[in-house]
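Glycoside hydrolase family 1
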Amino acid sequence: MFATGIENSYPVVQLPDGSARRIDEMEKTGHYRFWRHDFRLVKELGIDVLRYGVPLYRTHLAPGRYDWSFAHDVLGEIRQLGLTPVIDLCHFGVPDWLGNFQNPEFPRFFSEYAKAFALQFPWIKLYNPINEMYVAARFSARLGIWNERLCSERAFVTATKHLARANILAAEAILSVNPSAKFIQSESSEYFHPADPDAEIVARHLNQLRFLPLDLNYGVDVSASMLIYLMENGMTLQEYNFFRDRNVESVSVMGNDYYATNEHTVYADGRTEQCEIFGYYVITKQYYDRYRLPVMHTETNNRNGKNTDYDAPVWLRRQWSNLIRLKEDGVPIIGFTWYSLVDQMDWDTLLTEENGTINHYGLSDLERRIRPAGDAYRDLIKTWRGRVHSGLISLD
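Tokens:
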């Protein structure tokens, strides 16, 4: 599957002036105005799969109350154009009435939303219930920049267990309506490199922590030290046993998101700096060896690029070459994604400053003119589509 996506993050952030505001990337990049054009652009580029999510905070109005008007419009158009959607139900934020990821009621209400969604759109089979659980928990409860804006280990564990539980309950709810549904779990693939021997213990802990949401989601036993960490920071044994007994591993594809910013040099005092050393092949192989699930490359772009009209096609080729090497080395690959369709805004400050900065990460610009990355991706699809299909697995 050759895919792209509509960037649909909508966290609540604290701005430099101290005010809190929800940042909606679909609004900032003009998708609410140009969605018909955007979907036609996907077809023009020869792409057959679209990662897409209607905004949860605009759709789930209250317990048992939903506004499906926008969802029916856009998903009807996607279906008419013959595109295959992978539905993001939650992308870094919740409705105001639910508060944030510290709310223990979030999993219950989110699973109700997932079931209602599946009933509204029974033809949809591919879902990513909660996008990047690790990033959502880390940015909201460990780095203190989104949603609850907390900075503690206990808050991080609380957010993680609620996100993972909500993800599992949502998958079960969807399966109760559509037993043929599959789940492409888009998750950030990270690695922490120790800066020196004094940082090895910190790096080892962080490299266990990066797996935590997927360990819970797939029912993989954590290490003894990680279990102690969870218990010391508020997870009960009953809560942990839920994940051992109720996981969605058998109906899942492991989606790996990789950017140059996903690798970090870590120091003994916990400080980190971004770096790129291993690359997609090495890190994805680590995740595959741990979970042994089919893999889809679910996000990438040249986030650290300088001369982006040159860097984006080069980055695309690097990621594709890594993916082909993984396939040749026996990793079951089902697809690749350049994320996103159009340029983004203010991601250089992780959405925490509204500077109106256009981030040239898209296959097209905000005027919907195809960028060199789009031309390169279209050419790659034409060149490789027939050759790779015979070696890839099917979701049917």
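The mean pLDDT is 95.
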